[in-house]
Amino acid sequence: MDSQITRIRTKLAKVPYQPHRSHSVFEERHRFRLGPRISASEVDAFEAEQHLALPAAYRAFLTGLGGSGAGPFYGLLPLDECRLYTMNRKPADGGPRGFTHVDHPDAERGDLFLHIVERGCSDLCLIAVTGPLTGRVVNGNADGFRPPNVSSARDFLGWYERWLDHMRDGKDNRALGLTSPAIVASAPWGPRATVRAGSVGRAARGAGHP
Questions:
Q1: How far is CA 13 from CA 20, 24, 33, 202, in A?
Q2: What is the pLDDT of residue 187?
């Protein structure tokens, strides 16, 4: 695990400068910087307060690399902002299952999932902390707008390194918030759109002068 943490640290330092990398949505929020590492005693205190044990790979990341910042979507949440959820029962109409905060009166009893990455709106990126999925990262939606998607990565470090590798290699990966350079180039927020907008602006300014 120590060698993987070292490898991830190196990849994170290099990936922003890769010329053909993918765009990671909301990367301007964290700018590929991690927050301070969390001490083992702080993690112990969190686990005692929440009556759980964090998955080993996630704990190793927090104590060995950083406790917040660089990650898919808006980035990793500070541990003191991570909240526990349970998965809702399957709706009677057969629709996707949502998630409910454990303190909500309607929360189901069951396996626990910790909200670890901010995705915005009611979308959630969680890590299972109890049950058969323990250690796996799950994307879902609190309101059940889309079905939960369990990452095939065996643990948090594998999931995080996949984000770095796919970004470096210029891949599309919706589950990791990555958009390939080809799509970025023609996107309404991409560089071509910026150049076109600048050209139109210059032409408009020039038209006002003989």
A1: 16, 15, 9, 37
A2: 64
